[in-house]
Model the fold of this input.
Amino acid sequence: MSNSIDTAMIDAFGTSTKLAYQQMGAELQFAVQVVNDVNAATYRFKTLGKGVATTKGRHGIVPIMGLQHGGSTATLIDRYGAELLDDLDEFKQNEATRQNYSMSIAAALGRETDQIIIAAWGATANTIADVGNLGLTKDRVMSVRETMNFADVSKRDRFAIVGPRQSTELMSIEEFVNSRYQPNFPLVQGSINGKEWLGFTWLEHTGLPITLGAEDYRQTYFVHKAASGLAVGKGITMREGYLIERDSTMVLGKMSMGATIIDPPGIYELECREAE
Done:
């Protein structure tokens, strides 16, 4: 009996893991800037300040805007997900078992990718407390929208990431659920995912942090895609090796990435009470 999984199986395992990662793993990558193939321990996302156009007198010197250069640095950290295949069990297990391992590794790495992004968003200073324990309401969303508009945040590529409780609260808002108001963006099988409302593309996520206390508060996020970045040094890589002391083959998935806030006015944390 072979003491390791053959190359063809490993290639298939790696391919299925990457596919599963894309399909059911990370859900928030579309809401941030993503830079791949970063060959360094850190990556600096550069920013350029806004300029002001002015006039000049006849034969006068053309005024220079003096654009301000800045940026934010993401530190890449390695993440791992692994499983063991017992050598004597390997020949008894069918392809479905290995596929389940692949799905589990992909799901774990996907959840970790989302947590990297959420942790970066959580560093924002733009936190709005839930005064009055209102939860998620139309007026509160309108307030965030207005604040972002005043900050000249682009009206394209805005996203709202909320928890299951907030999704339920959205269902009670007539303008959100009734197709009369947005016939081009109906709810699909009752899901808010991908629906556009008040300039935001909505997504329900189960991994948002919650502050526990006398009242529990979910941290939801309203973000512009260009306001945060994910630097990927290496996407999912699969390896395998026989461990003689365990008489098992370890199948390992790993990745390296980091996230940061690039443009603070484009990220708002909206605290929402988790009603019982």
About this structure: Residues 7-48+68-121+231-258 form a domain with the Major capsid protein gp5 fold fold (CATH 3.30.2400.20). Residues 82 and 187 are 37 Å apart (CA to CA).
